[in-house]
Amino acid sequence: MNYYEEPAKRLPARSCDVVIAGGGTAGVVAALAAARNGAQTMVIEAKGYPGGMVVEGGTALHSFYNLWKAFPGVEKRQVVRGIPCEIVERVAQAGGATGHAEMLVGYDYDSVCTAIDTEIYKRVVFEMLREAGVHVAVNTLLTGAIMEGTWIKGVLTESHAGREAVYGKAFVDCTGYGDLAAHAGADYTEPNDYPVANSIGVGGVDVEQYHAFFAAHDAVSQYARGWRSGKPDQIVRIDGAAHKLPADFVAEAHKIGMSFVTTTVHDDYFMFIKLNVKMTVSPTNRDAAAEAELELRKRQARAIELLRKYIPGCQNAFIARTSPTLCIRRGRLIRCDYDITLDDVLEGRHFPDDVLAYGFHDSAPRLQIKNGGTYGIPYRALLVTGIDNLWAAGMMITSDHEAHMSTRNTVCCMGQGQAAGTAAALCAVRGIGARALPYADLRRTLEADDTRGGVYFDS
């Protein structure tokens, strides 16, 4: 490789209290929490809108509730509330959510289906950020960190306006890829233990006939009814058991990493049909990612062909939405002060420094949290080792793949964002590092901010 030595350049600079790197699933909530706790907050997002994996990668938000339906006699509890719940309520008011629709089939996987309209979500959270006074810098790349020993003093950004330095007192990495932590010199690995995906929205389809296709083969494995196109008690989530479906259809779908599960908040529309590709190297590899991007788009086209060929009511199916970039489940794994284990998750362990309780596992029913309960995310799990004023929130924590299959999910990431953003604000205002913040102060603030009476702290 050849090298070019970039000459020194005087950059324009601005200052704020809290910098949130990444305006995605965790980043939106972190920014709202920081701003509402009195910190001058800036969020830096590479795309032209906030939302991240919530609007690009998944089929529903998993999960605000414990897995009560899989355990007869266990109490139904909304485990996560706070800002994540407020966002869903705002999206629902705008006509863009199913509500917390109870699963009628497949409730040993999740007790509810909370699906959202991707486009309404983007607008609503953008509005919420503006209302909170957050400086939202979209179409802006994070390109570096300004360090002073073990403290981040600022970050470098690039936009159409050019390069800029942003100084701050506290920083939260919500990039998904762990870009800020890497720029700051934190320890990390790149497990490359998941496929990458690009989920498409599909129009010109019939939701009822999609369900009827699975029902005709006695293959319905997930089924929920909720709000759709302004009407209650409509089908909003469907999945089918592959081993009961026509073998030629399943074989072709398997070749393109196609999942059968979908959700919707609109008639005649599948909000997410997911296509997967397993890369041989980490998705941080630019050139390998480019190959995966093309392959995913080829698979999207093939998925439409399969829907038209095999599924009644889908003869006129077409791609109505794609994600602008491939979606990851893990990029860099950032080393933090505590690493959540699979036993922590499955045994429902809680910690003296819990900042969140959570009750969903994406590998259910194979792996479930004990007795339909919850486990805790300790504050230490968000503290990036070796950096005094950096928190990591989202899919970048938890080394064990099976444990990560819980902590990486959307609602857990949202809750982590509220905890990290709140802590960053408290530390910025006081001029202290992440580890100097008294846990009692953080917990008291999280409880006070949880105006909906949520069970952020469980036992």
Q: Which regions are unreliable across 5 or more consecutive residues at pLDDT < 50?
A: none
The 3D shape can be described as: globular
Helix content: 25-40%
Percentage of β-strand residues: 15-25%
Biggest sheet character: 5 strands, parallel
Query: How many extended strands?
Result: 21
Category by helix and strand content: alpha/beta
The termini sit apart by 55 Å
In order across it, which strands form the biggest sheet?
6-3-2-10-21
Number of helices: 12
Radius of gyration: 22 Å
Mean of residue pLDDT? Answer: 96
Describe the structure.
The strands form six sheets. The protein has a five-stranded parallel sheet with strand order 6-3-2-10-21. The protein is globular. Helix 1 (25-36) links the parallel strand 2 (18-21) and strand 3 (41-44). It has helices at 25-36, 53-56, 82-93, 118-131, 179-183, 207-216, 247-255, 286-310, 342-346, 401-407, 410-430, 439-449, and strands spanning 13-15, 18-21, 41-44, 101-105, 112-113, 135-137, 141-148, 151-159, 162-167, 170-173, 188-189, 196-203, 220-228, 231-240, 262-263, 269-277, 318-321, 333-334, 354-358, 375-378, 390-392. It is 29% helix and 23% strand. The model has no long low-confidence stretch (mean pLDDT 96). By secondary structure, the protein is an alpha/beta fold. The N and C termini lie far apart (55 Å). Helix 1 (25-36) runs parallel beside helix 11 and helix 3 (82-93) packs across helix 4.
